[in-house]
Amino acid sequence: MDLVAGIDIGGTKTKLGLVNQSGACLLDMNFRTREYPDLEDFLDKTIQCVHELIEQCSTPVNLLGIGIGAPNASNTRGTIEYAPNLYWKGIVPLLDKLKQRMDVAMKVTNDANAAALGEMQFGNAKGMKDFIVITLGTGLGSGIVANGNIVYGFDGFAGEFGHFAMMPEDGRVDGLGVRGGLEAYVSATGLKRTIMHLISKYPHESRFRGVAFNDLHGEEITEAAEQNDPIALMAFEYTGKILGKALANFTLFSQPEAYFLAGGLANCGKWIFDPTQKYMDQHLLQMYKGKVKILPSGMTAKNAAISGAAALIWGER
Fold first, then answer.
1. In what side-by-side order are the strands of the sheet with 149-150?
2. How far apart are alpha carbons 61 and 57 in whole angstroms?
3. CATH number of the domain encompassing residue 285
4. Whose CB among 20, 136, 148, 232 lies 3.0–4.6 Å from 224's, allowing a Cys bridge?
5. What global pTM score does this model have?
């Protein structure tokens, strides 16, 4: 059976799976990235997990290759470079070191680019040639598809919309130190920061008074909005306003047919989609109005990142 190993390297967890040509993840496993601060140990563990997945498969596996999505990854250099949420600092020669451990085809790209590839091959973007995937997790990532191709840029780092300085110079600092960076406002972390800000600014009764930042979770904020908690409602409106205006600006770049929202914050459903659509529509230039959609990802949430990474290899078949 022909399969591809998809690997999603995250700051908290590394997820792996075997993916078929339809994008279905047949087997998967994960381990905690932070338990392997030494790069060589991490790579040994990664390849060990690939072998374990192959051994667990009920039929013989013909492994066509390994696709990897990782933060701050360059598809042209095969490296991870200056990723703020990983232990390994500087420029990490990821593919060179992995190829020393396993002799199969390998490709790596930014995790948001992998999400865009997965959406195009396996998700709701089938048949589209111009769209942008916005991943809303701990930070904000973006994968841009124009004329049917991922926009990689000179050496693989194009499309870092999360670090677009949308807000005033005295705004929040994002994960790469950009003051007013979009991801500091529009991400799961950004939503939590907004809740804390609104609690300090307004006297409204809210279930979040007395809740510590680290005890805040997106599911609870959504639940609170459904119960008409004023702070939760204001937080989603504020977040959607910033994201909607940003998407209107990004439309000038490549005029996408659609934006796909993926990741934890996108799971908040109408609470993030509705205000984002409203404010994007308000800020679009006239020639774009009525032409740009905001849609949910069509990838199965549990293994979307794995299947997206595997699309790097399947896309070449």
1. 149-150, 140-146, 131-136, 258-262, 293-296
2. 7
3. 3.30.420.40
4. 232
5. 0.91
- φ/ψ (deg, to 5) at 216: -85, 135
Cβ neighbours of residue 185 under 8 Å, at least 6 residues apart?
166, 167, 171, 172, 193, 194, 238, 239, 242
Let me know whether 212 and 257 are in one domain: yes
* Same domain (yes/no): 129, 227: yes
> What whole-number distance in Å separates Cα of residue 108 and Cα of residue 68?
5
DSSP structure class, residue 262:
E
Tokens representing residue 305 in the block: 């990142």
Do both 107 and 128 map to the same domain? no
Residues 292 and 187 in one domain: yes
145-167 per-position pLDDT tens digit: 999 999 999 988 998 899 999 88
Distance between CA atoms of 19 and 41, rounded to whole angstroms?
25
What is the number of other CB atoms lying within 10 angstroms of the CB of residue 208?
20
pLDDT at 96 over 90: yes
Helix axes 230-254, 188-201, angle to 10 degrees: 130
Amino acid at 135: T
Q: Are both 145 and 52 inside the same structural domain?
A: no
- CA pair distance 29, 24, nearest whole angstrom: 14
My answer on whether 144 and 244 are in the same domain is yes
pLDDT, tens digit (0-9, with 9 covering 90-100), for 9-67: 988 899 999 999 999 999 999 999 999 999 999 999 999 999 999 999 999 999 999 99
SS3 category, 202: coil
Q: Count how many domains the chain has.
A: 2
- Secondary element (H or E) of residue 53: helix 39-56
CA–CA dist 18, 29 (Å, integer)? 10
- Name, in order, each residue with C-beta under 8 angstroms of 193's C-beta and a sequence gap of 6 or more: 172, 184, 185, 213
Nearest-5° angle of CA 89, CA 136, CA 155?
Answer: 45
d(CA 114, CA 123): 12
Residue 270: give the domain boundaries.
Answer: 124-298
